[in-house]
What we know:
19% strand, 214 residues, 7-stranded mixed sheet, alpha/beta, two-stranded antiparallel ribbon
Amino acid sequence: MQAALISMAGYRLVSALGATLRWRTDGLEHVDAIVRSGRQPIMAFWHGRILPATYYFRRRGIVVLTSENFDGEWIAGIIERFGYGTARGSTSRGSLKAMLQLRRAMAAGRPAGFTVDGPRGPARIAQPGAVWLAKASGNPVLPFHLESDRHWTIRSWDRTQIPKPFTTVALVVGEPFDVAADADEKRIEAARQELEDRLYALEARALQLLKKRA
C-alpha cells in the first residue's frame, strides 16, 4: 500500500513537472532508423537522468529493468503509469530472470531501456547488461543523454538531476552499435567501454546544445 501511494504521488508530480519542460533534441533519427530496419533499440543512459528520460520517452512500450525491492516496487508503479513495461531484477539479484524477460519482450517487438550504472552504482560506470542483451537479442545498443539548463541535484550516489519547472532540456541520441552474437568476454568488455565513452561524449554534446540555445 505504501509503494502504491508513493507511485501515485510520484506519477502526478513527474507529469506536472514534465508538462512544463521545453525540449531541444538531436539524433532522434537513429531511433526511427532502427525501427524501420525491423529491430528495436536497447536504450542506454545514466541513472542520474532518469526523471526527464521517463517523461520524454513515455507511452512507447519500452521495457526497463527495475530492482526486486521496495524502491523498485514504487519506481515500477510510476513508470508503468507512463506506459513502460518492467522486468524485475538487477545486476546483483535476479539478473538472469530479468534478462530473459527483456529478451522475450524484444522478440515480441518492444524496445528495452537500461540505466547502465544502476541500480546502485558506481555512478557513471557502465555495467555490461545492455551489451549482454544486444549480444543475446541481435538488437543494437542506443546511447543517449539529457541535460537541463536549470535543475536541482540530489545528494544521492548518482547525483540525480531534477529539471526545474519551465526549463529547457537537451536530449542527444548517439549512433547505435551492435554486439556480435559470438562476442567473447574481451569483446564484451570492449563494447561496455565503448558505451561508457559514448555516453561521456553525448554529455558534452548535450551541454553544447544548451549553450547554442543561450
